[in-house]
Amino acid sequence: MEKIIKVILALLFFLCLLNMPYGYYELVRFVAFASFGFLAYKANQEDKSEQVFIYIALALLFQPFYKIALGREIWNMVDVVVGIGLLISIFIKNKKSVRDK
To answer: Which SS3 state, helix, strand or coil, does residue 63 take?
Structure first.
């Protein structure tokens, strides 16, 4: 479930690089806020406090209630960095799981 959420979020962030209608960006903020909240909850259940902090910070960054005005260029960089980070986190977790077995 976590892998699917991360892949979907990464795709949503990469699509933000295109010229999308404003409603799309609002949707991404709601989805990202909820998804990062869920990922923080799951990380907390697994006692991964550093991941909890990261996911909460990302949830606050993408929260839909108060717009954080960073400008299009900076938001594009944030979207790419977060999207790549989510995809990398899938593979890092898989490598650790394989080593533990």
So the answer is: coil
Q: Which tokens hold the place of 99?
A: 């080593």
> What span, in angstroms and rounded, lies between the C-alpha atoms of 21 and 15?
11
Dihedral angle over CA of 4, 39, 9, 55, nearest 10: -150
- Cα-trace Rg, the chain: 14
Structure tokens at 15: 């699509």
* Residue 98 pLDDT level (bands cut at 50, 70, 90): very low
Domain of residue 90, residue span: 2-100
pLDDT in tens, 13-37: 999 999 889 899 999 999 999 999 9
CB 40 within 8 A of CB 59: yes
Q: What's the structural domain count of the chain? A: 1
pTM: 0.83
